[in-house]
Design goal:
The chain contains five helices and no strands. The mean pLDDT is about 90. It starts with a helix and ends in a 7-residue tail after the last helix.
Amino acid sequence: MIDLNQIKQHLNIDEDFTLDDNLLIAQRDAAIDLIQTRICLTYDEIIEREGKLPSRLIQATLLLIGDWYDNRENMVDKNSSMPFGIQAIVDSCRDYSR
């Protein structure tokens, strides 16, 4: 779906820098889990229905990973678990019938 190389390219991280690889994979998995919960569909269900993962969901996932990566030391209490722009993309994919 979204591999480590895509994430590193999105974040402008050199592929030879591997110290944060486990963190990036964990953030990817958490971002996917959060988005799937918000849209009431799994990425696998979407791929099965549409043949591929829509680019807007890939973008939302990468943006969320980037936000968490850049703000991993942020101690400010936010009201939302994802920034507004990402939330708008995710909401456009939500299955409201569930």
